[in-house]
Amino acid sequence: MGGWKNYYMPGTVEEAIAVLRGYDGRARVIGGGTDLLVETRRGLRRPYEAMVDASRIAGLNTITQTGDGIVIGCGVTHSEIVNDARIIRHGQCLAESCSVIGGPQVRNVGTLAGNVAHALPAGDGTIGLLALRGEVEIAGASGRRWMPAKDTFIGPGKSVIDRHREVLTRLRFEPTGSREGSAFHRVMRPQGLCLPIISMAARLTVDGGTITAASISMGPVGPVPWSAEPAAEVLVGGPANQEQFDKAVAIVLANVTLRTSKYRATEEYRSAMIRTYLPLILARAAERAGAQP
User: Fold this and answer.
1) Radius of gyration over alpha carbons of the chain, in Å?
2) With pLDDT > 70 as the criterion, what percentage of the chain qualifies?
């Protein structure tokens, strides 16, 4: 495959950082490579002297549950997330969002870390992680740091993560517990380009029929994946019912930036999909919250 001269498969984070430092911005980190290969073939990415494959770094190809939450290594594929019992139980919207990415071959190779680092406004795995209020760990020459995933996005395909000098090593989220549930849904074109018209996810805590905590995420509704905090805030303190969900929809539509796209849909259609499906997603998350012991 053209586009680079050297391909590295470091066994440790330190080794990966050392290789990146040696190339001084002329190398790039790669995970599953499913997006990068397509873009390189289409001439949408400049050639690099080297690729640094982070998917084989020791200890970063597993899912673990610790006191810090459910932790997903950068080498974990979408298929592994979809089939993990802990994520299905305690982060269901993430399992659902990763299950619709590409086809089986893409899910078997592509990674959630790559989905997040690629920073596309409509990254399905990203939407699921944002609803769970996920965080990412970034490693570079100055050390490692955790930050909210939602704060990594700058613009379409642009991230605060410097993919020429840093590695997104791990992702984590607090598992849903008692009286909590989450849900995801994607609307996409049934034929032609496999592009989402709108993807949405939600996480709710429901106590005695009252919503006590909420988060909503969606995309593409602007230049970056969006955490719909104003809409989530209006839910808290109210009942988990259609009237309250409709209030959240109104806030979303007042704050999103929708546009007509010949590849996706018209602005009007995408607005209609938010009005139709966001209440259903919220209702499903609330139902799952009620099912938790």
Assistant:
1) 19
2) 91
